[in-house]
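Researcher: Sequence recovery benchmark, item below. Answer with residues only.
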């Protein structure tokens, strides 16, 4: 299943949750859910019908996974849920190129080993502890690193390993 499909499904599930429809997509919605449904515009109803058709194409395992995510979302503090909603709205407003770039980065992150992720988190925490001047210097060094050719980078890595092993 693609990232786009998963996002659509989660959006459907979140909308259903916000309307008061049980995550299990039960056949008999509550009176409150019916009233909320009736308040929707025709285009909103059409969109939800479309999303529900997509939901029905999911396997039991995929539906279970979505339900678990919904329950995890519901269990979050209200501020955290709002932060997630804001991030989602901000993502939706991005130009397609930027969305594609973020999806690519996310996929690359998901493919990293747990050890590599841990190392990156540790480096990020260290970076957050730097003062403004140190951050600026580090960004400048990184910019210079990016301008190096692959051969120059390999040579610098070799020199760094050699220097570390001699200490």
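Model:
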């Amino acid at each position: 299943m693609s990232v786009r499909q998963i996002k659509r499904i989660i959006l459907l599930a979140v909308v259903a949750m916000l309307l008061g429809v049980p995550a299990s997509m039960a056949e008999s919605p509550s009176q409150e859910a019916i009233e909320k449904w009736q308040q929707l515009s025709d285009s909103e109803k059409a969109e939800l019908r479309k999303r529900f058709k997509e939901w029905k194409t999911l396997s039991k395992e995929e539906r279970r996974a979505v339900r678990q995510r919904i329950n995890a979302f519901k269990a979050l503090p209200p501020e955290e849920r709002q932060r997630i909603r804001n991030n989602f709205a901000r993502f939706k407003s991005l130009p397609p190129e930027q969305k594609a770039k973020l999806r690519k980065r996310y996929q690359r992150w998901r493919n990293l080993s747990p050890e590599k992720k841990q190392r990156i988190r540790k480096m990020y925490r260290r970076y957050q502890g730097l003062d403004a001047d140190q951050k600026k210097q580090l960004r400048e060094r990184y910019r210079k690193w990016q301008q190096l050719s692959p051969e120059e980078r390999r040579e610098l890595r070799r020199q760094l390993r050699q220097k570390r092993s001699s200490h």
